[in-house]
Amino acid sequence: MSDATLPAGRAVKLKLDRDGAIKRAFMAVIALYLIVALALPLYAMLSKSFVTYSFDLARYEFQVSDEAGNFGPPQTAAAINAELGVFDADDLRSSSDGRLAATAFFPDFSFRSPVKYRIRGTGPDAPYLVGLDLQNTTEWKEFDGNTFRRINLRPVKSVGVQNYSEYFSNPALFSSIQNSVFIAVISTVLTVVAAFGFAYSLNRSLMRFKGFFKLVAMMPILVPSLLPGIALIYLFGNQGMLKSLMMGHSIYGPIGIVIGSVFFTFPHALIIISTALSIADQRQYEAAESLRASRWRTFWTVTIPGARYGLISAAFVTFTLVITDFGLPKVIGGQYNVLAIDIYKQVIGQQNFEMGAVVSVVLLIPAVLAFIVDRQVQKKQVSLLSARSVPFQPKPNKTFEALCLMWCGVMAVFILGLILVCQFAALVQFWPYDLSLSLKNYDFNRTDGGGWDAYTNSIQLALMTAVFGTLIVFTGAYMVEKIDGFKTGRGMFQFLAMLPMAVPGMVLGLAYIFFFNDPANPLNAIYGTMTILVVSTVTHFYTVGHLTALTALKQIDAEFEPVASSLRQPFYRLFARVTVPVCLPAILDISIYLFVNAMTTVSAVVFLYSTHTTLASVAVLNMDDAGDIAPAAAMGMMIFYTNAGARLLHMLASRRILRRTQSWRGR
Amino acid sequence: MPNNADAYLEIKDLWKAFGVFLALKDINLVIGKGEFVCFLGPSGCGKTTLLRAVAGLDPQTRGQIHQGGQDISNLPTSKRDYGIVFQSYALFPNLTVARNIAFGLENTGRPKQEIKTRVADLLALVGLPEQAEKYPAQLSGGQQQRIALARAIAIDPGLLLLDEPLSALDAKVRVHLRHEIKELQRKLGVTTIMVTHDQEEALSMADRIVVMNHGTVEQVGTPTEIYRQPATLFVADFIGETNKVATTYSGGRVTLGSVSLSTEMKGVAEGASVTVAVRPEDVVPHLSTEAGEGAANLLPAQLVDMEFLGSFWRCRLQSDILGGQELIANFSINAVRRLDLKPGLDMAVELPAERVLVFAEGA
To answer: Are residues B74 and B201 in the same domain?
Structure first.
């Protein structure tokens, strides 16, 4: 039988039952969500970056009459321009909104003169406006002078790498790449070192106050990334109380960005490194000790190699966070340009959407690279985790503990310090002249930026993101993990679910403009509404939730579905009765993660909010921009209180729900 | 084979391919109503794959499956009629024992009271009437397995599938549960397929055993048939223990060195290369003085060492006739005492003709 071959024929396919049909429908819906909310906008942005608009003068022909009304010979606009030299090549480059007055080709033009004008296209695509009326025809049209002055040529679209060559030949824009990488590398090194020391103290020493330090270390997650910028301005800015410490250097620029970046990326790096350090194997250390290796040698030959995947992963995550961050350089970057700022300036400042798309693509490259490396490393980390090992037990050592306490103390002072400075600044009358306390900075309705509405909008956004996001993310993860068959579809889905991690918020926001603001898009109606903010935020933070859900689902016995099915029970009954209750801790984690991030995010939504959907985090940015730094600090602190409250509530709720529904855990 | 009239499950020309790898090759099998059948084989032999095909969890690539006269080849799991118990038990951790058992009964229009009675009956049936309100994590492995069994039979399935149900348990519990499961199956009369890699389990529980290897069925038969008359060398080797010697066959005899043994094997071609197989317990000890010239199937051998295993002695013997190859023999305590067997002793062993198995090459 060893040379048996499969008889010809078709593979047996099971009939689709109702269960299978519902599952597929569910997956299709969520896949459709990811396609519409992620793949298509990114595609729109990518294609936009290759689009250029320019006036093609060869496409238009003019005829001018004399005063008696006798028309002369037709002449192309290109020919006229060549003769008169009105426009050079640069002038003819344009954007999608560009307009070129037809009268420019006729220096003698006067709308009072009886001279008449004719215009026609020489080919099929020669758009021009008569007032607001778009014409595109090869027929001659005749106009009197008074109408002719309202004629504007429209640019035509062409596809090519012109935007890119323009970008890379612009030294100001190009230097942003260097700046971004420089900032990101310095911040990454500092953050990883700081977080490693902190994580090492937490996991490998008998230092006291571990709980307190853990709590403080997580605080930066609760505030927008631009908040440390505001605190730094108060400390070291032009009117800062510690300005003398800067020794003539300016906080506005790379120094400020780096310090702020260390602040807001610290908890992210800490979580990763702490996980890596917590899986140490006691036996390796015992072996090292029995071989009489010095502590120093043990550190470099056992500790560091054991934590290397965590360190690499933390470095890439930090790098990505810094290079894609927008809030901090906006607040404290001064004249120092980075990529994320360039996107903002191109889009909001110059309305040059195509160039914004080009910078986005450039910013996408390091983010995607970092993402790929991180995923590879994470896979290896998992295999380390599954190894059986004896947990490490730290031994008492007074000097070492004092050292750890010092390290953690310095970081805690740094983090708490910046938050307290913000709090203080928010509460004083008028920095630095009148330091008496007042709540006037919290009267947001008196400053521009959206007022208290911005705050309630943020709450609404955060709640909706938490509810709908958790629903979508968890159901999607369930379909990926627990559906049988349909392998290709699941693979694609998984790819889409991982993609948001690699897409910077600014890029996603801009992609949304291109996709949803297109009048031809039937979904255009959600542009400028709360819905688009929710969709963008859910999508922006999709991946972490997805991974959390997957991890929880993977721990559930894979045989539950077959058993339920053999008991002739529909999968959704199993889902509701077993899967969701068992995964409740993970579900709660996903929802609080989405809530907190929806409160603090700036990058994606800064392009998408409208006057009636301003957000607290964006208000911080705008108030700071307008010079109202104290109210900005106050609003930032509002976000902090809210997130801290939500965290606390989440903790209490989790505990309650766990006690009630998870009594089966443990014996 | 059972009488075709009461065939319940029929597997016809069944193939399963994973990419280019053929996990099951042309399986044909008939299982009678109420039978307890074990799929037995080493890991990777395809036994679980076959079970999953029957359950519709991993449908076969080619071939048909009929259950109770109905073609179920391409029915989805939910439309088939079986209960299943996995090695992991797959009990729902957040539901009580009673809720677990009731899972397949609820949502079917049965009145609450009826469900309650049924659950109580089932708990009594598996011998755990007091555990209804406990959570699975509060039960021992054996108890969990019985709950999983109760949940599977709650819906009165026509077919009970057991996927290595005992292998996660420790030895003592396993032996105890073997009897219980067998007893329960007999009481309910439900047709049962159990997948196992443990031959002892299969021999003690099954009405018939399907021995599988490399995706094919090696032999189907009752436990005694499988043990006493293995159809292939693989079966002889996999079930129990066997001494194997390669030699040739001629005129109803096989030759081992200068000794020629008579066998009762039929259907082996003259001059064919064959393997002779003898089970250790079938080797009969003799003192070399006893071994007369004319005695049949006798080999001179030296007793190398002896290992006391409680109910018998396990002995290693060496014979010049077998070259360097050792012969393993299980001698009864009585025989050892009677013949005063000791390591180093020159003795003779008899390989009884009716116990000598001869397998043609490649069989």
So the answer is: yes
DSSP A65: B
Q: How far is C-alpha A654 from the chain's CA centre?
A: 28
Q: How much is the ipTM here?
A: 0.83
Range of the domain at B52: 4-237
Tell me, yes or no, whether B118 and B142 share the same domain: yes
Q: What distance in Å separates the CA atoms of residue B147 and residue B145, rounded to the nearest whole number? A: 5
User: CA B33, CA A486: separation in Å to the nearest integer?
Assistant: 35
CATH of the domain at B306: 2.40.50.100
Question: Which DSSP state fits A594?
Answer: H
Q: Give pLDDT tens digits for B127-164.
A: 998 889 999 888 998 999 999 999 999 999 999 999 99
Is the same domain home to B192 and B215? Answer: yes
Q: Regarding beta strands A141-144 and A128-130, do their DSSP bridges make them parallel or antiparallel, or are they unpaired?
A: unpaired
In chain A, the residue whose alpha carbon lies closest to the alpha carbon of B91 is A560
Q: What total number of domains does chain B contain? A: 2
Looking at residues A596-606, what average pLDDT do you find? Answer: 92
- Give first-to-last CA distance, chain B, whole Å: 21
Structure tokens at A403: 């050292």
- Of A124, A159, A194, the domain-final residue: A159
Percent over 70 (pLDDT), chain B: 94
All residues of chain B having their beta carbon less than 8 Å from the beta carbon of residue A571 are none
Coil vs helix vs strand at B214? coil
A593: containing domain: 449-661
Q: Give the span between the Cα atoms of A114 and A35, in whole angstroms.
A: 58
Residue A96 forms part of a structural domain: yes
Q: Which of B28, B77, B110 to mutate to test the interface with A (most CBs of A within 10 A)?
A: B77
pTM of the shown model: 0.83
Number of domains in chain A: 3
**C-beta atoms surrounding B262 within 10 Å:** 16
pLDDT per residue as tens digits for the range A177-205:
999 999 999 999 999 999 999 999 998 88
A554 touches chain B (CB under 8 A): no
Q: Residue A5 falls within a domain, yes or no?
A: no
In a domain, A39, yes or no: no
By Cβ distance, the residue of B73, B77, B137 closest to A12 is B73
Instruction: Say yes or no: A560 and A630 in one domain.
Output: yes
Q: Is residue A443 part of a domain?
A: no
Q: Out of B17, B63, B86, whose CB is closest to A559?
A: B86
Are residue B121 and residue B220 in the same domain, yes or no? yes
SS3 call for B343: coil
Residues of A whose CB is below 8 A from B93: 578, 582, 664-665
> Domain ends where: A417, A438, A459?
A438
Do residue A532 and residue A567 come from a single domain?
A: yes
Calculate the CA A604 to chain-centre distance.
5
Q: A475 and A599: one domain? A: yes
Q: Please give the Cα distance from B275 to B244 (Å, whole number).
A: 6
Residues from chain B contacting residue A663 (CB–CB below 8 Å): 135
Quote the strand ranges of A70-229, DSSP E.
Answer: 75-76, 93-94, 100-101, 116-121, 128-130, 133-135, 141-144, 151-153, 156-159
Structural contact between residues A276 and A310, judged by C-beta atoms closer than 8 angstroms = yes
Same domain, A461 and A430: no
Pair A396, A466 in one domain: no
Q: Domain check: are A299 and A174 in the same one?
A: yes
Same domain, B297 and B211: no
Q: What are the b/e assignments for A407-440, b being 16+ CB within 10 Å? A: bbeebbebbeebbebbbbbbbbeebeeeeeeeee
CA–CA–CA angle A503, A507, A513 (5° rounding): 130
**Interchain contact, A563 vs B59, CB within 8 Å:** no
Which chain B positions have a beta carbon within 8 Å of A566's beta carbon? 55, 77, 80, 82-84, 152, 157, 161
Interface contact A15-B74, CB threshold 8 A? yes
